[in-house]
């Protein structure tokens, strides 16, 4: 029997991440699809600090959220950014995908590259938002599910 890959080897292995996963009622309690975005402004990246009363309180993350039924992943990230930050974005493509296991749930993450095309940045659900350089991003305490994304950003800066 083959041993399961450790999380760090699965993190960016696209063979482990389907392009789209249909959520059914029987799967909904165990599997979630989540999108997030790397939103850049010049050499800065937008990161958000979770609210004090949220799960993983006060940790940093890339903005995004859970896909709703009937919604594509791109529609999800556009909606989430509009709801959380009052920004309109254009999705530029997928940066990476990963699978994360949390509280008996399997979470399928799709991280997009995106650019702002409208709106004015508001902090509707987060404790704080920051524009940081790639060099600064490693100084922040990120949610466990986002650490692999940060590592990939740092690795690709060169």
Automatic annotation (TrEMBL):
PROSITE patterns, alphabetized: NUDIX
Cofactor requirements of the protein: Mg(2+)
Domain named Nudix hydrolase: residues: 30-155
Keywords: DNA damage, DNA repair, DNA replication, Hydrolase, Magnesium, Metal-binding, Mutator protein
Superkingdom: Bacteria
Sequence intervals crossing the membrane: none
Single annotated GO MF: 8-oxo-7,8-dihydroguanosine triphosphate pyrophosphatase activity
Reactions catalysed: 8-oxo-dGTP + H2O = 8-oxo-dGMP + diphosphate + H(+)
GO biological process: DNA repair; DNA replication
The name this protein goes by in its record: 8-oxo-dGTP diphosphatase
Species in which this protein is naturally found: Anaerobacterium chartisolvens
């Amino acid at each position: 029997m083959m041993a399961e890959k450790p999380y760090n080897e699965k993190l960016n292995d696209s063979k482990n991440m389907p392009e789209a996963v249909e959520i059914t009622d029987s799967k909904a309690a165990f599997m979630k699809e989540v999108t997030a975005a790397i939103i850049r402004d010049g050499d800065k990246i937008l990161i958000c600090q979770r609210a004090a009363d949220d799960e993983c309180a006060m940790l940093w993350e890339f903005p995004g959220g859970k896909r709703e039924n009937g919604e594509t992943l791109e529609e999800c990230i556009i909606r989430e950014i509009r709801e959380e930050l009052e920004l309109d974005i254009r999705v530029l493509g997928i940066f990476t995908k990963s699978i994360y296991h949390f509280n008996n749930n399997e979470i399928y993450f799709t991280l997009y590259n995106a650019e702002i095309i409208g709106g004015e940045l508001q902090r509707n659900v987060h404790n704080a938002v920051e524009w940081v350089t790639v060099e600064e991003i490693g100084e922040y305490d990120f949610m466990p599910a986002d650490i692999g994304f940060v590592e990939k950003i740092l690795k690709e800066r060169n």
